[in-house]
Design a protein that fits this description.
By secondary structure, the protein is α/β, with parallel strands linked by helices. The chain is built from 5 helices and 16 strands. It is globular, with a radius of gyration of 18 Å.
Length: about 260
């Protein structure tokens, strides 16, 4: 983990509230794992005072090494509004990569990837990383859900990687009008995957975990939660553990990616 000041490469508006920003980084990010995150802050600003966590969306790689990375974010408050105002050449502070990432067993050939809204952010990194490593993605399926069509992000990125994508929206403005968990359970009933990975709102993750347990499919989830430090000092990102004798785990150190059976939902 290294703290550093980095430059903005670009900051692209994808929808009314969602952006993708490219940042420079040192080459130690070449070892970053899908699911890990960075803490990002603004030098000289008192509002926001604290750094904020953002999942690494993807690495920018040339000649086998990372020279930058992307963050996908939604403007929801002061910190993200400040980030949206940054332009190419501006500076931000980061430290990372932090946390634990996804660990997909090599024997898992059929994988379901489930994203809710901005929860798609670390999952693009996951599938892109497998693509770079020449993993056969022909039996991977991506399910993306959102309230409206504006919430359906990164569909083309997955398609460009050769992965099938199924979309749902609450209002029916794109894809099927239903919760994203509906087609997931239907697909599992037809042919169960070897693993499920998911990131999104807690209600969605609770449902995904229930489906995985019902069909006895191994599942990993990335938890979205606020953090003040990212290093286990503030204890602000505690999540209830299912492990006997261990009441709480912390998303910054033990996660943000957890085996589904490690947490109480």
């Amino acid at each position: 983990m290294i703290q550093q000041s980095v430059k903005v490469l670009w900051n692209k508006k994808l929808s009314t509230a969602c952006y993708k920003i490219g940042l420079t980084c040192s080459d130690h990010y070449s070892s970053a794992k899908p699911g890990q995150f960075v803490m990002l802050g603004f030098a000289g600003q008192t509002d926001p005072l604290l750094h904020r966590p953002f999942s690494i969306h993807n690495l920018l790689i040339s000649n086998g090494s990372a020279h930058g990375f992307e963050l996908l974010y939604k403007v929801v408050g002061i910190a993200t509004a400040s980030l949206a105002a940054r332009k190419a050449g501006d500076s931000v502070e980061i430290f990372g990569p932090l946390g634990t990432g996804f660990l997909i067993p090599s024997r898992a050939k059929r994988v379901f990837v489930v994203a809710g809204g901005i929860g798609v952010a670390p999952l693009v990194f996951l599938v892109s990383d497998f693509h770079r490593k020449k993993v056969d993605l022909s039996n991977y399926r991506v399910f993306i859900g959102g309230r409206t069509k504006e919430d359906l992000l990164c569909c083309q990125e997955f398609l460009d990687l050769g992965v099938s994508v199924q979309t749902t929206t609450d209002d029916g403005s794109a894809g099927d009008q239903c919760l994203v968990t509906h087609p997931v359970e239907t697909a599992i009933g037809q042919t169960a995957p070897d693993a499920i990975v998911a990131c999104g709102p807690m209600d969605m993750l609770t449902c995904v975990v229930g489906i995985a347990e019902k069909h006895r499919v191994p599942c990993q989830v990335s938890i979205e939660t606020m953090m003040a430090c990212g290093m286990g000092a503030c204890l602000g990102c505690a999540v209830e553990s299912r492990t006997e004798g261990e009441q709480y785990l912390h998303a910054c150190m033990d996660g943000p990616v957890f085996p589904a059976d490690a947490l109480k939902f």
